[in-house]
Design a protein that fits this description.
single chain, mainly alpha, 2 domains, 2% strand, elongated
């Protein structure tokens, strides 16, 4: 069983949810050699670690509240050294930063698009990487021969071509509809 004390809180929550789903599937647990005892043991370990973290967080919130009250009354800085505490490890503080980050998928896509907007994409490398194990070399060569040598596009060029193709398709469709209506 992995060490739960070094896991991120998000990882613990995922493991707890998975264990809960497995525990609800009694027929599946019966088919396991240990009849699901391992799953239940891990579930209890994950729950215990979550409880420890929640209690630690409550304790820290209480202590920080007391420290703030003392600062207000005494007007003197009061420092409490909690450096050895597990909740102040870089991993946990980084996790808190990650939780604060915006999780909007469209925003992330836009950021990635802006970052790689002018990066050229080597199509030949990508085709080889994708199909090298599954297609014969002759088929890969046929795919590559359909493209100009050293062919690559930036994201912007790809979007422009897609727009042009859509525009041509719309024009063809409009011409077809005009011809149908004239008959």
């Amino acid at each position: 069983m992995p060490d739960t004390s070094i896991m991120l809180t998000a990882e613990l929550k995922v493991h707890i949810e998975r264990c809960e789903r497995l525990i609800r599937q009694e027929a599946l647990l019966e088919r396991l050699p240990d009849k699901g005892a391992g799953v239940k043991h891990r579930y209890n370990a994950y729950l215990a670690e979550m409880e420890i973290r929640e209690n630690l967080q409550k304790k820290q919130e209480f202590q920080s509240g007391n420290i703030n009250e003392e600062k207000e009354y005494n007007k003197a800085p009061v420092g409490v050294s909690l450096e050895n505490d597990k909740a102040h490890s870089p991993k946990v503080s980084n996790e808190k930063d990650m939780m604060r980050m915006e999780t909007n998928y469209a925003t992330h896509l836009r950021i990635i698009e802006e970052k790689y907007n002018d990066v050229r994409i080597p199509v030949e490398k990508i085709v080889r990487r994708m199909y090298e194990g599954s297609l014969k070399e002759a088929e890969i060569q046929r795919i590559l021969n359909d493209m100009p040598p050293k062919y690559f596009l930036t994201h912007r060029e790809t979007c422009e071509r897609a727009r042009e193709m859509a525009k041509r398709t719309r024009e063809k469709e409009l011409q077809r509809l005009k011809q149908q209506s004239s008959f």
